[in-house]
């Protein structure tokens, strides 16, 4: 592999270990997984990172309530997160845990550098604190929020502490410029506007150490001070690449990983945007490191029309996810998440009725049906061998141009992380095949021996278009598409990074054996008496 391949680095937030994995974590990780798979297939040098955020007062408290040590709680739940990653077939290249030595060692170094550079100084903080968010809330905002967390609704806590502060205010001008010169730094637009609002309000220095609890990385040489969890957690994006390591420490992180920085995408939920879009770039500026290209803050899933909450008991939790996977397949679940999910600026409802609609219309009636129809007709009329393309064309269908346009559109939308749009272009090809079959009626043509060459051309065009569409769709539904490839007689290895070559018109060899297989996505009929409708 040539060293100059373009890199693509994508990250999820690292998840708190005091929570069990649910739809929110699965969603962000699925978005990253689909983008990572697509870009690897495209031939880019990809690094996809996820992990767990294991320090902080929340973890310390949860552990206390359960009567276990914070490390034991972290070990247990980090293992659970890793189990779920495997269950959902994610292709993350590493899993970082903030209690790992490779991480803490580098964070200590970053902090020492920040202290030495005057970006971290000793001061005193008195004010409101949102414990669930691990976030200090300025007095005016605390009042507006009626002294409650906007996220959890729990009362804010009054804090008075001697703290080390990060000199965020010193980076105001550089951040203003960043937002001006790099309009795509925060996406989508609505989220960028929120951050512009925060910048207009003016930035105050941020307390970055705590003395009221001990479950954190100790600040080197500073007594009882432990690091505020956000400074610790955000650093994961660079400690996993070894950016804070010194020569001779290569055993902690493979040395050549530094090539992945800066990240292409930090994908996060909208509730943690300020940390990623204002605090983090300022910290990187202070460390003299390049800035990520884009912080993409998606919105939230709600459940059957209501905010998910423990009290309502409507969390789309792991058992619920498992149910969907058992009924519809993992790939159908991934498809629903990425084509219907809240990548945009509004929250999205996860509703069973909608899931069934999308499943039946996109997957059973379109993708699955189209592939089995075409494979069946080739089976019936050409003894299961892909026919000769010939030169016959049908007015209104310029397949080489149509497929090329869809391939370009998919690649382009993927590079913007607009996954729904990208998959819409790819599935659009399948819908065009259906329209083509309706227009040409190959089953009628087959009755007329004189139309044999024409029939061959039509079915070649169908199969070839489906082959190209399937290559584009693999990132979203790897298992099902690999099944489709077996039906279409294709031996494709996405690890070879040759997506563009595979998408060139004419790649389907005449004579290729196609095979009828099981229906990719059997139509789903909800039984009225299962109590779930
Ligand atoms: N540990 C911090 C992140 C540190 S990153 C340096 C954290 N962890 S978390 O476990 O609370 O995970 C939050 C993330 O889960 C959100 O940013 C989002 O990616 C995802 N989601 C949690 N609930 C969600 C929904 N209801 N819908 C969609 N995603 C949401 O914050």
Poorly predicted runs are none
Query: How much helical structure, as a percent, in the residues?
Result: 40-55%
What form results from the Cα inertia axes? Answer: elongated
Distance between the terminal alpha carbons, to the nearest Å?
51 Å
Mean pLDDT: 95
Count of helices?
19
Structural class assignment: alpha/beta
- Radius of gyration from the alpha-carbon trace, in angstroms: 26 Å
Quaternary organization: single chain
Most strands sheet: 7 strands, parallel
Query: Care to count the β-strands?
Result: 15
Textual characterization of the structure:
There is one protein chain. The chain has 533 residues and is an alpha/beta fold. 46% of the residues lie in helices and 13% in strands. The chain has helices spanning 23-41, 57-66, 70-87, 101-116, 139-144, 172-181, 189-201, 229-234, 236-239, 273-286, 318-328, 330-340, 352-381, 399-415, 419-440, 442-445, 452-473, 478-487, 499-502, and strands at residues 7-11, 15-16, 45-53, 94-97, 120-130, 135-137, 157-166, 186-187, 206-207, 209-210, 226-227, 265-269, 295-298, 301-303, 348-350. Strands 1, 2, 3, 4, 8, 12 and 13 form a seven-stranded parallel sheet that branches. The longest helix is centred in the last third of the chain and has 30 residues, at 352-381. The radius of gyration is 26 Å and the shape is elongated. The relative contact order is 0.11. The model has no long low-confidence stretch (mean pLDDT 95).
